[in-house]
């Protein structure tokens, strides 16, 4: 575990802390000809070896920087094929972490992966998944007739309400699992404070009632899910 943590820390430092945005833009423009691509790889090698502080790990470091170069290069040339430019970024980071994991546990990779899978709390995973997008879809269906009577706010961010609901339900589920019911009250209070000014300015009773019903329904779904996980 210590080896993997060190490799992951080296990756985070090299990819985020010590890589200026100007390097990223230069790599996107010049791709394989960018000098910063190679400087970035060398920097990764230096940081990795410093954190490992053991020359016997040089084969692992060599594998990491070689794969890092190939993955980064692939991302630079394939990003144009994606409608959402953030998708290649997350794929890139996932591949990097998988390489680090494979290097850290190369001796018993299969056995270690199996042991990790056996320790996964699948009821918790199911609860987390449920309170995210499935719950958002269920709420959309339940509130569909009400939402048709509400004038849309074109100044709002697209799908902002859906993502706010998902995040708040995840927090509520976490608080219930930890037994921190008072934190749920603070979360409701904080949301009410942020919503108060908007509702006051619009003076729209239907919108106020719609938001109140949606909030109570969202918290209710998360609370019931949390109780089912804790007690059953």
UniProtKB/TrEMBL annotation:
Its transmembrane ranges are 36-53, 59-77, 89-107, 119-139, 170-190, 210-231
The protein's UniProt keywords, in alphabetical order, are: Membrane, Transmembrane, Transmembrane helix
In its UniProt entry, what is this protein called?
DUF3307 domain-containing protein
Lineage, uppermost ranks: Bacteria, Pseudomonadati, Bacteroidota, Flavobacteriia, Flavobacteriales
């Amino acid at each position: 575990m210590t080896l993997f943590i060190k490799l992951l820390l080296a990756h985070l430092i090299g990819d985020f802390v010590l890589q200026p945005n100007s390097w990223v833009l230069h790599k996107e423009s010049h791709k394989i000809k960018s000098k910063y691509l190679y400087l970035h790889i060398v920097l990764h090698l230096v940081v990795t070896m410093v954190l490992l502080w053991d020359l016997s790990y040089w084969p692992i470091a060599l594998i990491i920087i070689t794969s890092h170069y190939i993955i980064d290069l692939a991302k630079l040339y394939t990003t144009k094929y994606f409608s959402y430019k953030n998708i290649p970024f997350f794929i890139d980071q996932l591949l990097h972490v998988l390489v680090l994991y494979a290097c850290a546990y190369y001796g018993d990779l299969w056995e270690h992966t199996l042991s990790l899978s056996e320790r996964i709390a699948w009821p918790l995973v199911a609860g987390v998944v449920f309170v995210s997008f499935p719950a958002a879809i269920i709420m959309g269906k339940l509130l569909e007739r009400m939402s048709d009577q509400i004038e849309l706010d074109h100044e709002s961010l697209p799908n902002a309400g859906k993502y706010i609901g998902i995040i708040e339900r995840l927090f509520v589920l976490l608080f219930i699992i930890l037994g921190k019911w008072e934190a749920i009250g603070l979360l409701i209070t904080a949301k009410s404070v942020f919503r108060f000014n908007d509702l006051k300015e619009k003076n729209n009773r239907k919108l106020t009632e719609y938001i109140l019903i949606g909030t109570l329904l969202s918290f209710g779904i998360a609370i019931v899910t949390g109780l089912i996980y804790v007690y059953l």
